[in-house]
## 1
Amino acid sequence: MRLYLINPSNPLVSIVNVKESRWNRYRVWKPLSLMVLAGLTPPEWEISIVDENLGAPDYLAMPRPDLVGITAFTSQANRAYEVATGFRRLGVPVVMGGIHATMCLKEVIERVDSIATGEAEGVWPQILEDARHGRLKRRYDGGLAEMKDIPLARHDLLGEGYAFGAIQTTRGCPLNCSFCSVTAFNGAHYRHRHIPDVVREFQLIREKHVLVVDDNLIGTGPQHIAHAKDLFRAMTQANLGKEWVAQATINFADDEELLALAAKAGCRGVFIGFETLAPEALLKLGKKFNLLNGRDIRASVRRIQRHHMLVAGSFIMGLDIDEPGIGKRIADVASRYGVDNLNALFLTPLPGTRLWDQMKSEGRIALDRFPEDWKYYTLTFPVARYKHLSLGGIIEEMIFCNREFYSMLRILRRVWGSLWQHRKPLISLVANLSSRGNIRLNSKAYADFKRQRAIGTFE
Ligand code: B12
Ligand code: SF4
């Protein structure tokens, strides 16, 4: 039995534009969902994982599979449907799962043979068995998986072409920010994988550098922090020899022992969502967590950096309080906080989120020709009606923000800072240069976008 597991690409996502900017090579991340599915697949299936981010193959020239499994974020949905249609025309059954299939079930079910909602661990073996006997059901629902059922991912199935391996140690998040789908999809409780499983899986990863995909590696409560410390101790003891980056909330900075243990275990950088500088907007986003303790963010960033870890800060543009000039304000604040890298993203109503419900009820979803428009739901295109900014205006703000933050002078200052403080200056340089390279690519994409959408109609 032959199984293809496919990660569809979206040409509007900068990571796939490696030819246009070679730095993007370092931004292609492994599709962990498919490696986990492969880990759940019994040996009688011959598995190929196809990651279209490395280039889409000629499927017709490949041996005919018995089953195709497709994963998709919302931004990948269009291409997922193209691939599904192609295989279904050949008579090959297609099952689709992942976040988009779960949040847009009705749309997806019309385009594939079978749909898997939720986490797959509890249902994938059954799906394979049913496919083998030609009796696939229309829908399977995995709900929330038992953490002990998460298999070791098949890291061996994806070869060269990646700068980073990928691993997951927790699922779920209690914070339920209005713009994020994680709580709706993975539940409101942190669920930890067993530490020995995580260590064993780290040992299977070939790459020296690893992305820990958890939404918040350390969690928020004292018991989560204690678990994170135990994990870091176990990783150090196993002498993994890996360098890794992860996502965390700003409370990472509050515990010197945690910082020291993380650094010792190989942590070289963290992505932190600051989202906005306005307390009232943080409250509206549901991210009041960032407001706790009258925090001095610059000092928090510094504390992390003193342990030789880089800090990438994420901000949202297009909040109801954001007015013209927001691009400059974000670039300046990110520089003031002292982050090594800035990820500024448009406020985007993703299906299944509270923000989606709110914007939909207010008639503020501007790009709503679905499924075609999903390709713009990358957080790098404005897709909603923003309160004080026109569509053309907010694009200009974004371009200005990135030009300002990624000016050569500011890059050199930051890289010099990371060299001085022994914080992986090379990673900092590559991350900064790839972001700078993408400003030009994005400007071109925005010009096409404006032309195609005839901007002005909903400004
Ligand atoms: C790592 C990650 C990335 C990596 C992607 C690596 C990769 N190639 O997969 C990077 C950094 C590149 C990335 C980019 C983006 N991401 Co992202 N990302 C994540 C993150 C943090 C973890 C994903 C992960 O690996 N999980 C671990 C695996 C094991 O879980 P899983 O993917 O859910 O898979 C399980 C089930 O869904 C199911 N399943 C999945 N696929 C399939 C397929 C079949 C056939 C079956 C049966 C089951 C099944 O089984 C798996 C095992 O249970 C998630 C948040 C989250 N917790 O999921 C956000 C998340 C997926 N990202 C999100 C977004 C918005 C994006 C971007 C659009 C914007 C951005 N800048 O972040 C881009 C777009 C990329 C693109 N190609 O279009 C949103 C997606 C929401 C949505 N409706 O689409 C999420 C949910 C975060 C959020 N804020 O809401 N992301
Ligand atoms: S944005 Fe981060 S903190 Fe907020 S709900 Fe999503 S994963 Fe949790």
## 2
Amino acid sequence: MTDAAALPGQPRGGALSGPATERAVNVLAPNPSAMTLDGTNTWIVAEPDSELAVVVDPGPLDEGHLAAVVAAAEQAGKRVALTLLTHGHPDHAEGAARFAELTGTAVRALDPALRLGDEGLAEGDTVTTGGLELRVVATPGHTSDSISFALPADHALLTGDTVLGRGTTVVAHPDGELAAYLDSLERIRSLTGDGSVVSILPGHGPVVPDAAAMVAFYRVHRAERLDQVRQALADGAAAEDDPVEGVLRRVYADVPSAVWPAARLSILAQLEYLSG
Ligand SMILES: [Zn+2]
């Protein structure tokens, strides 16, 4: 017997605003839903003795939230000097332009369409602000533009939606791809293997203190889902008018209906992967 509540991915409390590591503080956005869990985590990251801070994922276009992020930085004696995005989904990026206006900062992202200012971001880049060092780790799969930020000084990885604080991630077909996603999990696993990443600061849900265990859980979950999808196809879903619906009914019966649109995208991503 296992205690399901003790497994990674099972509910273990929610995301909270406040300090998570020595350098990272969460300001939780007020946009909870079946897809966003407690809401979007907006991360303020700074060296303790620096006046300059970096904000990762300002979140939705919510004036109260954006003002709260600015206020939280100011209360810590810091000024926001740069805005970064993990990917372009609106619950992370919709407020970025307004936040950049409020703070007079540039916005850097992998997708050029999301940037404000001259500088982008790419795999291997190191962002240095006020002595803070963040390293860009390409982690496509949830979306093609998904990146993570390693915070080496705290042995932490800001993962956006690539790894969440609980539950599992949607591979948002067709932009998201399962093969790329599995490669990204392997990348994160290798970072945990050499000790450079110990904890995960996710885009939704609570901080993950044991990154290696969570990534292992994600890999097992993905393999199990693929087996279930294969089985559902063999059991008749493949012959139905709408195989996606057939797989949804057989495999995702335990998932709340509010998540079905996202589950359909994940099923499409899995069908594409299995046919590739
Ligand atoms: Zn997303």
## 3
Amino acid sequence: MSEHQSTDDNGLRLAEREAVELASELIQIDTTNTGDPTTLVGERAAAEYVAAKLSEVGYETTYVESGDQGPGRGNVVVRLAGEDPSRGALLVHGHLDAVPVDASEWSVHPFSGAVQDGYVWGRGAVDMKDMVAMSLAVARRLKRDGIRPKRDIVFAFLADEEAGGQQGASWLVDNRPELFEGCTEAISEVGGYSITLKDGVRAYLVETAEKGIAWLKLRVRGRAGHGSMTNQDNAVTKLSEAVARLGRHRFPVVMTDSVREFLAGVTELTGLEFPEDDLDGSIAKLGGISRLIGATLRDTANPTMLNAGYKANVIPSVAEANVDCRILPGREEAFERELAEILGPDVEREWLSLPPVETTFDGALVDQMHRSILAEDPAAKLLPYMLSGGTDAKSFQRLGIRNFGFAPLKLPADLDFTALFHGVDERVPVEALEFGTRVLDRFIREA
Ligand SMILES: [Zn+2]
């Protein structure tokens, strides 16, 4: 082993240890994001913590707050110069906020960041202070050891992802796009983690697509009147009928490329078949991940809120409902047509939409994902997949950036990882953080 090699190893070992420490300390900063700006606690503290960790090793940090909802929505961006600035930069981003928690349900305090039984415990451990800690540890290690990656790397640590990124990624894309200048590709959550398909067969799922989010408000107007009299134009009745029709509707199965490639990969690895006439049944055999994959077969529209009336004997003139719609890439127009048919002409519609995301699973960056994982887990297989939820990728797509979910974690076979997202006793294995740091170190240097 050359002297250079051993220095290099020491630097990497330090980064692995730091990733665990950073994850624990980030969890201890309560960054709950309820969507209501008056309840904000520690987003700024977390951003300042990250900025301090970066400037400590010599980065010039840019700290930005949107200011739209008052102070405190901290975002931190730094750039590490690569060997070849003419190549597009790689964006490595992660959000610092986390979803609310009911501490009474947990077996450890959710903001303890406890490191015990081989896990780091707490809110954000998998969504996504794990990836934030790993990329921060790698960013520090590269600077400390004077390592130049092949291309420019932009590290971004962001506010507000859990409420749609309006004060984080989306705001920065609209107001500070120069921070991402030259970025052509990005990695972040939710992907890169392993699932064990059968004994010793591990697949790492790389997110290449996301369903679109469309929050739909329905409004029906009718004739107001006394509750004791006949009324053929009752807004509550008309709205209820429309909501029930929509809630019961099953949208058609549409196989997107990401889902098709994922299922073909599983068949190749396990022999499990996915016949078109029993897709739901065969996908259920995949275990925990089936909840997620099952939701990427078709569009969904789930009624979630109803609002009408103010007194038992008064027929109101207006009734409203909210529907959470999730739409496959390429289905936007077809979905709207189908929806219009189900609802009919009397139902007014108001949309709050974030588009679907989709890229192909190929090219030099994907090859480097393969190499970086295989160097640490030689029997691994990488599969693309579609996320049923949404991430900040939706905002960065607006800058023409190709987005991947690649936050590498090698997980124990019996861990129901997908259940830990926003879940009780959220935790990440210490060994997985160390593994992910080694993979990311190689990936970011060579990408
Ligand atoms: Zn997340």
